[in-house]
UniProtKB/TrEMBL annotation, chain A:
CDD domains attached to this UniProt entry: BTB_POZ_EloC
Entry keyword annotation includes Repressor: no
Bilayer-spanning residue ranges: none
Protein name: Elongin-C
Family, per entry: Belongs to the SKP1 family.
GO cellular component: nucleus
UniProtKB/TrEMBL annotation, chain B:
InterPro entries: Leu-rich_rpt (IPR001611), Leu-rich_rpt_Cys-con_subtyp (IPR006553), LRR_dom_sf (IPR032675), Zyg-11_UBL_adapter (IPR051341)
Taxonomic lineage of the native organism: Eukaryota, Viridiplantae, Streptophyta, Embryophyta, Tracheophyta
Pfam families noted in UniProt: LRR_6 (PF13516)
PANTHER family: PROTEIN ZER-1 HOMOLOG, PTHR12904
Organism expressing this protein natively: Kalanchoe fedtschenkoi (Lavender scallops)
Name of the protein described by the UniProt record: Uncharacterized protein
């Protein structure tokens, strides 16, 4: 993966997820952070830290980004969510506008 | 974008409400539940409710997140539910209308809920003055619906302590003039519903002391004189005997909606003389006995006009068209309007989207004039003499509905109870935006049903009283968009044939006397606040539906055994209109 096509998402515990920029852009919030004209640190370093989102949830969110891209391209599979993750994932999704 | 197709929040809510076991997995995550933003908590709660997974004890987990709860019409809601709701710290809005298990004592836990701003108790008939005393401890109530509860005039006078009230629905309660006079201290009141109350002209005179009043409903009361209310935008005086509205010339510049259905005007010559009606958008005069409609000339902003069941005739249509520049919706059903009236309208109503001419004296010539109203989306010609064709002996028949193909926006067509035949309807297949087509005639056959496959947007089809055979239904390939198919009165169909059809197309809701109706969504409840007018209409509609249902006679009684046997194989129309002999001859050739 070329550096310019990827972004780094960092969880509350400091875990780093490197994913395609295209996938991360599924989130409106991340899209705004990466594309806003101002000099956000996020725009320059292609790194976003989420002190409110735990590693487990951020991993699931990243899975959703890729699933969502596939879904949009016509591959209609089910996205499984473990019931115990629903509340935290819901809040993360709400924050990320995804 | 994938996020537009299925959003993650929605997927999470679905996953959380999948089963009782799924609920058990998250209900003890107390810290997460406390942090849940209220829109998410409310979406989750109402989804649980919809899935039948919400027990009163589960309400407890939402006590620090939910601000608004809608429990209307749930028969299970009782004192236990309200006891849990009493602990909701941030509850602003609670709707328990039509929850018939709610009693006086059930309301006790709500006492002292300072966050509560909106409370709907409509039609909780077991709530009386005793229960009302608990509500007096709700200091911040702004919107209160208590129509058709068991409250007396005494309780109503005590409403004066709710100083912040902006909306008050007292429909169907014994509100007296005196009780209304004690409410004059409610200076913030904007919306006041008093239908079916005991107030008279004296009570109506107190309305002047509510400076912000924009909405008043006085339907089914003894009010005959309405004082000037400068900010009034919406007035309902249906079924009243009306002497005068407003006192001075030119009052009423804010008026937008006027409902006078079933009202009687005593000074029949000029009921709106004093009213500045130039800004009125909606006017309902259904069932009103007025002979002079010249007041319509001033109503240049009108978008909706209902003159159904009035005494309007063609000679008044010229006045209607002078108010036609912005008209979107016109109802002339059950009047003596003829095709000439439609001719007068054509060309003067450029924005008209919906016209109802049901049960009028129009005939086939009206079709041509309707085709000259360019924005039409919905046409109702039911119960008229429309046939859809013209035929002079010795010449080819002319199919008149083809004129309607010029209406690019046409979406809905009602031809129930007309004398149309299959061939006359074929031109409608050129109206590609058609999504609702209602037909009811004994001249319809398998042939036209099969042609309906060609309409790509069709969602609702009525094909009633038709000579539709089992094989005809079996061969029907419905458009993929079709959701509802009404086959009532199609007496040749058997239960098996219809069950097979339903099995092949499970997403289509089929109606027929031989099929058991299963309500598609038992949770859905009336969302509008009922008024007696509406109730009455609904009841009448129900009664009508029942009468129609009861009157369905197995038409096999009408025919002998031999005739029936010969019909079984045939797809020909059974009852052609008397003047359609030419067709019968053509078909038998």
């Amino acid at each position: 993966m070329k550096k310019e096509e990827s972004v780094k998402l960092i969880s509350a515990e400091g875990f780093e997820f490197v994913i395609d920029k295209k996938a991360a852009m599924v989130s409106q919030t991340i899209r705004n952070m990466l594309t806003s004209p101002g000099s956000f640190a996020e725009t320059q370093h292609r790194e976003v830290t989420f002190p409110e989102i735990s590693t487990t949830i951020l991993e699931k969110v990243c899975q959703y980004f890729y699933w969502s891209l596939q879904f949009a391209s016509g591959k209609e599979t089910e996205f499984h969510i473990e019931p115990e993750l629903t509340l935290e994932l819901m809040m993360a999704a709400n924050y990320l506008h995804t | 974008m994938g996020s537009e197709v299925v959003d993650l929040v929605g997927l999470c809510i679905e996953a959380a409400c999948r089963s009782p076991a799924a609920v058990e997995k998250w209900r003890r995550q107390r810290r997460s539940l406390e942090r849940l933003p209220s829109p998410l908590a409310e979406a989750l709660l109402h989804r649980l409710l919809h899935r039948g997974l919400l027990q009163p004890s589960l309400l407890e987990v939402f006590k620090s997140s939910v601000e608004s709860i809608d429990l209307r019409g749930l028969s299970s809601v009782d004192a236990e539910w309200i006891a849990y709701l009493g602990a909701f710290k941030y509850l602003c809005s609670l709707n328990i209308s039509d929850c018939h298990k709610i009693t006086n004592s059930a309301l006790w836990p709500l006492a002292g809920l300072t966050s509560l701003k909106e409370l709907d108790l409509s039609r909780c008939a077991r709530v009386t003055d005793t229960g009302f005393t608990y509500l007096l401890t709700l200091p911040n109530i702004q919107k209160l619906w208590i129509s058709e509860t068991g409250l007396t005039a005494l309780a109503i006078t005590r409403l004066s302590s709710f100083k912040d009230l902006s909306l008050l629905d007292l429909g169907g309660l014994p509100v007296t003039d005196q009780a209304l006079s004690s409410l004059q201290v409610l200076k913030k009141l904007q919306y006041l519903d008093l239908w079916g109350t005991d107030i008279s002209d004296k009570g109506a005179s107190f309305l002047k002391s509510f400076p912000k009043l924009t909405f008043v409903n006085l339907a089914w009361t003894n009010v005959t004189k309405l004082p000037s209310l400068p900010f009034l935008a919406s007035l309902n005086m249906s079924n009243c005997l009306i002497n005068s509205i407003f006192e001075e010339d030119g009052d009423g510049f804010a008026l937008r909606n006027l409902i006078f259905s079933g009202a009687t005007f005593t000074s029949a010559s000029e009921p709106f003389l004093l009213l500045n009606t130039s800004s009125v958008l909606h006017l309902d005069l259904s069932g009103v006995l007025l002979h002079d409609f010249s007041f319509l000339c001033d109503m240049r902003a009108l978008t909706h006009l209902d003159l159904s069941s009035s005494v309007i005739k063609d000679d008044s249509i010229e006045v209607v068209r002078s108010a036609g520049a912005n008209l979107r919706n016109l109802n002339l059903s059950n009047t003596k309007v003829t095709s000439f009236g439609v001719q007068l309208l054509a060309g003067y109503v450029p924005c008209l989207e919906s016209i109802c001419l049901a049960n009028t004296h129009i005939d086939d010539t009206s079709i041509y004039y309707l085709s000259m109203i360019p924005a039409l989306k919905s046409i109702d010609l039911s119960k008229t003499c429309v046939k859809g064709y013209k035929h002079h002996p010795g010449s080819e028949p002319v199919w008149l509905l083809s004129d309607l193909q010029t209406l690019a926006a046409l979406e809905s067509m009602d031809l129930q109870g007309t004398q149309v035949i299959d061939e006359a309807l074929l031109p409608l297949l050129g109206c590609k935006k058609l999504d609702c087509l209602l037909l009811r005639s004994a001249s319809l056959t398998d042939m036209f049903l099969h042609h309906l496959s060609a309409l790509p947007r069709l969602t609702v089809v009525g094909f009633r009283d038709a000579v539709l055979t089992n094989s005809g239904l079996q061969a029907f390939r419905p458009p993929v968009t079709l959701k509802s198919l009404d086959l009532r009165g199609c007496w040749l169909l058997t239960e098996d044939a219809m069950h097979n059809f339903c099995k092949s197309y499970p997403h289509i809701e089929v109606r027929h006397e031989l099929l058991q109706m299963v309500p598609s969504n038992s949770y859905k409840n009336p969302t509008t606040r009922a008024s007696p007018v509406k109730h009455k209409k609904e009841r009448a509609a129900l009664a009508l539906a029942r009468a129609v249902k009861d009157s369905f006679i197995d038409q096999r009684l009408k025919y002998g055994r031999d005739e029936l046997l010969s019909l079984q194989a045939s797809v020909l129309p059974l009852e052609l209109p008397p003047d359609a002999d030419f067709l019968r001859n053509n078909l038998t050739k």
